[in-house]
């Protein structure tokens, strides 16, 4: 009886979710798995489709000539956000649905993917982006060349510092949303989260585009900016191209640190575990 009272008086607090173990830094075993190459194909095709639809939407809008005709800036934002929603939903179970080197970089920093997988994903994403924009140019060559090829650049009236800040904050919001939507803690406690995860990610892309299209055309995805710059290959496309790599990578780093070390308190947990270890 006293044992039962003692156990009831000191309830055990156990996690009702399981954090996956950190991915190894170098996992050469992945190179022997078909699932690894299947994931690369999925990232390549998804990024190709993403760039084809979105850049074609941008060119189609520019071709209208009238700001009030066509899909408008709101439609362009919907095209980017909607495609991310669709493609993340389709590829999440195969590759994780990154479709963005900044997302891959953030997940690598959080030890969600290995260095080998992260680098391979980024290469596949950039190649897919190049092919996707190449299809747009093949189908809409005259309009593509005339209206800038959908390449990102700093808009007139904005400084490079402003553009860099916009890319950092925009990518922070996107990667932070990715971490929150795929958090094992939420996925376990809210059964609907795995099904709805692509929705907030796509909506984050939509909202960021609304804010930053007037500033940079919205990058927040180095593959998107790189693919458009390679195919268009104009001076303006390369002038400030570094912004569309540095900004997203800094934003991804900040989001990974914020989620892992502030919201999930990884540093505090590690310190507490160290102090509770009698051998220390």
Automatic annotation (TrEMBL):
Coiled-coil region: none
GO cellular component, one term: plasma membrane
GO molecular function: water channel activity
Cellular location(s): Membrane
Topological relation to the membrane, as annotated: Multi-pass membrane protein
Pfam families according to UniProt: MIP
Domain of life according to the entry: Eukaryota
UniProt entry keywords in alphabetical sequence: Membrane, Transmembrane, Transmembrane helix, Transport
UniProt record similarity statement: Belongs to the MIP/aquaporin (TC 1.A.8) family. PIP (TC 1.A.8.11) subfamily.
PANTHER family documented for this protein: AQUAPORIN OR AQUAGLYCEROPORIN RELATED
Name the record gives this protein: Probable aquaporin PIP2-8
Native organism taxonomy: Eukaryota, Viridiplantae, Streptophyta, Embryophyta, Tracheophyta
Gene (UniProt): LOC104604275
